[in-house]
Amino acid sequence: MKILQFLPNTLRERRLSTLVQPHTLVGRERIRNLYRLARQIEVERIPGDVVECGVYHGGSAAVLGHFATNSQMNRTLWLFDSFQGMPATTEADDNAVDGVRADTYVRDLVGDIERVRAVLSSVGTNMARVRIVPGWFQDTFPTLPAFRIAVLNIDADWYESVKLCLETFFDRVEPGGFVSIDDYGHWPGCKKAVEEFFERRGFHPELQHTDYSARWFQKPQAAPLRGGS
Ligand SMILES: C[S@@+](CC[C@H](N)C(=O)[O-])C[C@H]1O[C@@H](n2cnc3c(N)ncnc32)[C@H](O)[C@@H]1O
User: Fold this and answer.
1) Looking at residues 70-82, what average pLDDT do you find?
2) Residue 92: pLDDT band by 50, 70, 90 thresholds?
3) pLDDT tens-digit profile of 133-151?
4) Could you tell me which of 168, 205, 164, 209 has the C-alpha nearest to residue 185?
5) How far is the CA of 218 from the centre of ligand 1 (A)?
6) Kindly report the CA angle at 9 between 40 and 115, in degrees rounded to 5?
7) In percent, how much of the chain has pLDDT > 90?
8) Mean pLDDT lowest for which of 97-106, 177-186, 196-205?
């Protein structure tokens, strides 16, 4: 599907979005925004890899992979997921949203690695530049080599998962790089994890709305480092 790369931008976005839609839980607006961020790091030449935490069947990852793995900037696409479904919730996740309790999803949403590979390939991803890391974040994150990040997409729903993603990866995001958080306006545990993290930093990024739930921001030059100022 190399031909996608030669389409004018609007057509390319539409075509890519249609190709990934059967393989994602993420709605059209959020896919469009990930497309925009993945493209923007090429336009602005922001160095670094692209990371997705929460992959499921790979639809949103494919949008990121389409750009990142064909970049002149030698990017790797890192994909993290248990591929065993959602972990247990904790107290911070316990509220029901629209009458649906978070814990009804525990061990649900079991992603399929072969399907991830297939959808990535279908949009022209260079698979040699993809690292799929299966396992619970708490087990896999401590094993990682050092790398910098240009786009960090967090789509992991629960308080503990989102907290760990931010604690592990936020400091690796390059100034000018982008952070997107899928569940901020939907799951209260996600919002709490984000707010607490930035409260601790004394840093309050201006969160941009993608839709009712997803938020994103561009990391400024002078975001406070771990441990305050
Ligand atoms: C909403 S789904 C991701 C949706 C995906 N981005 C898409 O395009 O459809 C959330 C994923 O996060 C993963 N996840 C959440 N917390 C995790 C953790 N602590 N360790 C590993 N995977 C986790 C689940 O396995 C699940 O596949």
Assistant:
1) 98
2) very high
3) 999 999 999 999 999 999 9
4) 209
5) 23
6) 80
7) 90
8) 97-106
Q: Is the CB of 105 under 6 A from ligand 1?
A: no
Q: Assess whether the C-beta atom of 189 lies below 6 angstroms from ligand 1.
A: no
Region label for 219, one of left (φ > 0), alpha (ψ between -120 and 50) or beta (otherwise)? beta
27 lines ligand 1 (CB under 6 A): no
Closest CA to 76 of 164, 176, 147: 147
Residue 220 CB coordination number (10 Å): 11
Q: Closest ligand 1 atom to the C-alpha of 20? A: 8
**24 C-beta closer than 6 A to ligand 1:** yes
Cα dihedral 44, 47, 53, 58 in deg (nearest 10): 70
pLDDT digits (tens, 9 = 90+) for 105-127: 999 999 999 999 999 999 999 99
Report the C-alpha gap between 17 and 123 in whole angstroms: 10
Q: Which domains does the chain have, with CATH numbers?
A: 7-218 (3.40.50.150)
Q: Taking the model in full, what pTM does it have?
A: 0.96
Q: Which residues contact 83 (CB under 8 A, 6 or more apart)?
A: 55, 110, 111, 112, 113, 134
CA distance 71 to 3: 15
The identity of residue 64, as a single letter, is L
Q: Does position 229 have pLDDT exceeding 50, yes or no?
A: no
CA 167 to chain centre: 14
